[in-house]
Amino acid sequence: MTRMRRSSEQTLEYKIEQAEAKVAKTKEAHEKAVDELKKLYDIRMAYQRDELLKAMKNSSRSQERHQRMSKTGLNKSINRHDR
């Protein structure tokens, strides 16, 4: 009976070690995926910024008017999210 108990304990310890290894591996994969997602968000933001600057440069409106419009748009956007 003692022999059986040790075997069960060893099996349990082995299963725990395997589960811990799986968690560590999964955590690493998750962190890698999150980092990749952040990089993609940064690339998208840079692209949108470049497109906006290009549109403003080609626009006939003054810089002051662009600033007023962006502030007004920002305020409207904030008000919509407050509801």
Q: What can you see in these coordinates?
A:
It is built from two helices and no strands. It has helices at residues 2-58, 63-82. It is rod-shaped. It is mainly α and 83 residues long.
Task: Please give the structural blueprint.
Layout: H1 2-58, H2 63-82
List its salient traits:
mainly alpha, rod-shaped
Could you give a short description of this structure?
By secondary structure, the protein is an all-alpha fold. Helices cover 93% and strands 0% of the residues.
**Major β-sheet annotation:** none
Rg, nearest Å: 28 Å
**Helicity, in percent?**
over 70%
User: Which runs of at least 5 residues are low in confidence (pLDDT < 50)?
Assistant: none
Q: What is the structural class? A: mainly alpha
What's the count of strands?
0
Shape: rod-shaped
Q: H/E order of the elements?
A: HH
Strand content: under 5%
N- and C-termini, Cα separation: 68 Å
- Number of helical stretches of at least 4 residues: 2
- Provide mean pLDDT, rounded: 82
